[in-house]
Amino acid sequence: MAAPRNLTVDVVARLNKDEENAKEEDDSPTGKKPKFDRFPLTSWEIAAAIAVFLIFSTGLFFIYLTIPVAEYGKLKLPRTISDLRMLKAHLATFASDYPAQFIFGYCSTYIFMQTFMIPGTIFMSLLAGALFGVVRGLLLVVFNATAGASSCFFLSKLIGRPLVSWLWPEKLRFFQAEIAKRRERLLNYMLFLRVTPTLPNLFINLASPIVDIPFHIFFLATFIGLIPASYITVRAGLALGDLKSVKDLYDFKTLSVLFLIGSLIIFPTLLKKKRIYE
């Protein structure tokens, strides 16, 4: 009778071990199959997100009030190239007459959109090129994109872990594995991701604090890595009349150049890995 009893003990022990492993996998931010019976954010996290949104919105509203009343009807977030052409025509005079107010409002809107993942920042980048030219437009776009991405980084650090794990579990697990393999050359890898469209910038902004990327690495990679794509977009803003669609910005030739730059950036990482294997 000892054998069946031992068998029962073994089965119970194995079941307990499987439950513990399953629990550990569920607790991990990159668990293979996370299951949520409800919306992943707690009431406190939702309240914190709403509070941050209201603070940003209030600041943006007061900036809006400083704009001359005559310009109110002309302000509209563009959604197409045609909308952007109309907006550029309306704002050209205002931008030249009130440059400080316009730049302050432009920067606040760009950072707000980037922080809360509102689509349309590519049109803001085109507008910068159309109104300010390549040099000043590029400086504006890189500054705003970096500031907005940094703000999104800290917002995600506050409430983003359950949301990102819920929305992109597979992609988050892949990202965490890649980061773990490249800790020694993390800046090179992050620069590669920023220069090339390998992963969406939105996902990088949200996932970076979750996989423990240091902020200084994130900041440098964002500031430097966004320059090539921002240059392409700002330069295209000089010729809005010839642009038919946003898709025209990133044709095969442009993507090839971006991936070439990214390959040169990540090459030291690949070379070091090869030496280790040898």
UniProtKB/TrEMBL annotation:
It is found in: Membrane. Pfam families: VTT_dom. One of its GO terms (cellular component) is endoplasmic reticulum. One of its GO terms (biological process) is autophagosome assembly. It comes from the Eukaryota. Residues 118-237 form the VTT domain. Keywords: Membrane, Transmembrane, Transmembrane helix. PANTHER family: PROTEIN, PUTATIVE, EXPRESSED-RELATED (PTHR43220:SF3), PTHR43220. This is VTT domain-containing protein. It comes from Rhamnella rubrinervis.
